[in-house]
Design goal:
The chain is built from 33 helices and no strands. With 692 residues, the chain is mostly helical. The chain starts with a helix and ends with a helix.
């Protein structure tokens, strides 16, 4: 990689001009590679210690903004080793003096970890003096303490040409009081103004221009006060979603993603704001036009081309994550996120209901009323921006709480409730920041939630899959569902193993491919035997005696017509000679018009879920109660034999299908049901039973 070679040559130390030229090249490369600052900081962390302490090179890199400041701050604070590395302490003090105090290449907020470490080290030096005795002004302790004090008091200019690495990363001031905070947070003009100005700051962070900590903090604090207030939170979020939808539609209809439209809207909104709000929230767009770039030129038409039609959505997500980051009260942060997600859900469901109520053939006026791309992008951005909080091991309880809230949001937006959002829903279900985290949560806390979401997916598909043909849209949706299950099979097979029963319950019997995909899963810790070995005896495998883990609730369907009580009574005392006929009569579905009425064409005549539950329930009872008895000489096998002989072809098909669903990886369930199937085949009195 060219950048890596240039970075390596940078430390040759031939001359000051040599260093400046190489840093300038890296600065140009950064414009085309947004990840370069982060990569450079990672490379620096693996360099020799003497190169990390190169003052001239480090100052040159920081002055051009080609390092990721937050990552470099973290690396430098660890390098200090709590003050035990004296060379690193001197180096860090030099960097703070030159880059924070003297030149404002970075801010005290961005170097907070390093400053905190130096502050603790200075406090230890102070404590080494006798109590009541002040250290001399020229002592290292006094000099370091004075430097830290100057750095923390140092205020950045209104605007600088120094690039920032993360919108909203600056720490808020101690005083969070902003004039006018009690005013209605849902005011359309205020919401439009905040979103547009914040969008320009977000766009600026992607270029060589940026906004000072003071300006960023003003907007973060305004958002923080609005979102933490119960009266203003919900109106603000609702208005923000409406504004983002309108801006998205306006920018999409334009020939180019020009920022002039946003400038005009921001100017109109600012004119209608109260005076105290205009004073508190500076006009970033106007200030940006006066910011010189790295070459000293003033960009009079700054950021004419927006990075994306979704730029305001991306920016709003950053604003929400910044507000949650500075909220000290965990309960308040959870409540804020809950309300943001709730507003998104309500907006989606409202659009869904309006689209259904106004749907007409050839009605062009309603063509764009079902556009939910902004909502999908916002949820996806929130997944991404809040993922670091989920991964924070020290804050794990809040991490699982965030996942639970997102899972509940997807539950509320399931395809059966919001068909317009179905394709976006599937993509969010398999989102790279959601699926892996909820399925790798501590003690599998997120498995039940994700299982419910997969059931929503399959239940929405089931009626369409039972039909003989699929529409183009449903075929595409089916392919998406198939890919979700393939990802689960490859990365989380234990999930499919543990919930195979309920998943197969939702899959129609004619969907062999989908069902086999679920049944082919096996634990990653298990090594399957080679089926082509000539002397392979499956019965002798040690895994055949181990029970599988089943997390599905398989007895729920037995409540149909009190089936469970009938089965338990028979297995206990064999009270009924015609038990199979009694069970079959309870498994039949009575048509809406009564027993003599005809069932709707294509609908099953049997409670398929109840048949699946019956087979699994009786089978697991047989395994647990008759471990030392021959399988063929038990009441459980007598019940199976009677049912397979007395069922009609349709009922027998569902019954045998339920048994086949238990033939999976080696375990005692697979062993029992395979032996049962072979025994029933050999014992069958009718050829049609063996054929089926």
């Amino acid at each position: 990689m060219i950048a890596q070679k240039i970075f390596k040559y940078l430390y040759d130390g031939r001359s000051k001009l040599y260093t400046q030229v190489h840093v300038a090249i890296l600065d140009k490369l950064r414009e085309s590679c947004k990840r370069l600052p982060k990569e450079l900081t990672i490379w620096m962390s693996f360099m020799e210690d003497y190169k990390k302490l190169d003052r001239e090179t480090t100052v040159a890199l920081l002055s051009r903004g080609v390092l990721n400041i937050s990552d470099y701050d973290m690396m430098l604070s660890k390098f200090l080793d709590g003050g035990r590395n004296s060379a690193a302490v001197d180096f860090a003090a030099f960097i703070i003096q030159v880059c924070v105090v003297d030149n404002s290449y970075t801010s005290a907020a961005e170097m907070s970890n390093t400053i905190d470490t130096l502050s603790k080290y200075a406090a230890r030096l102070m404590s080494s003096f006798p109590e009541g005795t002040a250290p001399p002004p020229d002592s290292p302790a006094s000099k370091l303490a004075a430097l830290i004090d100057r750095a923390r008091k140092r205020t950045a200019p209104a605007l600088t040409g120094t690039p920032r690495n993360d919108i909203g990363s600056a720490a808020p001031p101690d005083d969070l009081s902003v004039p006018g905070a009690r005013k209605l947070g849902g005011s359309r003009d205020m919401v439009s103004y905040i979103i547009i100005q914040w969008t320009f700051m977000y766009e600026a962070s992607r270029t060589s221009h940026s906004v000072s900590d003071q300006v960023v903090s003003a907007y973060v604090n305004r958002g923080h006060q609005i979102l933490r207030n119960e009266e203003t939170r919900e109106p603000f979020v609702r208005a923000a979603i409406d504004v983002m939808v309108l801006l998205f539609q306006s920018i999409s209809m334009a020939r180019k993603h020009d920022s002039d439209l946003l400038r005009t809207l921001a100017s109109n909104a600012r004119a209608n704001l109260p005076e105290d709000v205009r004073t508190t929230l500076p006009d970033v767009i106007q200030l940006m036009s006066m910011v010189p770039d790295a070459n000293g030129n003033v960009p009079l038409s700054f950021n004419q081309e927006l990075s994306s039609v979704y730029c305001m959505v991306d920016a709003f997500s950053k604003l929400v994550s910044a507000v949650l980051r500075i909220e000290p009260n965990r309960a308040k942060a959870d409540e804020t996120l809950y309300n943001v997600l709730g507003a998104i859900i309500q907006s989606i469901l409202y659009i869904q209901s309006m689209a259904l109520s106004t749907e007409k053939e050839g009605d062009e006026s309603s063509a764009n009323k079902g556009d939910l791309r902004v909502h999908f992008r916002l949820l996806s951005d929130l997944f991404r921006d809040l993922a670091p909080r989920v991964d924070d091991k020290s804050d794990n309880p809040q991490g699982i709480q965030i996942l639970v809230m997102f899972a509940n949001a997807l539950h509320a937006l399931q395809p059966a409730r919001a068909p317009l959002f179905a394709f976006a829903w599937v993509e969010l279900l398999a989102h790279r920041h959601f699926m892996p985290r909820i399925l790798t949560s501590k003690q599998e806390q997120g498995w039940a939630l994700y299982h419910q979401l997969i059931l929503h997916l399959l239940s929405f598909l089931a009626p369409h899959l039972r039909s003989s043909s699929l529409s183009d849209s449903m075929r595409a949706f089916y392919k998406g569902a198939l890919r979700v299950l393939l990802v689960l099979l490859h990365d989380f097979p234990e999930f499919l193993c543990d919930y195979h029963f309920s998943l197969c319950d939702e899959i129609p019997s004619n969907c062999v491919q989908l069902r086999n995909l679920v049944l082919s899963a096996f634990p990653r810790s298990m090594r399957l035997p080679d089926p082509f070995l000539p002397d392979l005896k499956v019965d002798t495998l040690p895994e055949m005696s181990a029970p599988p883990r089943v997390l599905s609730k398989f007895t729920t369907a037995l409540a149909t017509n009190n089936l469970k009580a009938v089965i338990d009574n028979y297995l206990k005392v064999r009270s009924s000679v015609n038990i199979s006929q009694e069970i079959i009569s309870r498994l039949l579905i009575v048509p809406p018009g009564g027993a003599e009425a005809a069932a709707p064409p294509g609908s099953p005549r049997y409670h398929v879920r109840a048949i699946n539950s019956l087979v699994f329930y009786v089978g697991q009872l047989a395994i647990s109660q008759t471990q030392n008895s021959p399988i063929t000489m038990t009441p459980h096998m007598d019940l199976f034999r009677s049912l397979v002989n007395d069922f009609d072809p349709e009922g027998r098909y569902h019954f045998l299908n339920a048994i086949a669903n238990q033939l999976r990886f080696p375990n005692n369930h697979t062993h029992y049901f395979s032996v049962s199937l072979l025994y029933m085949f050999a014992d069958a009195k009718k050829e049609i039973i063996q054929e089926q």
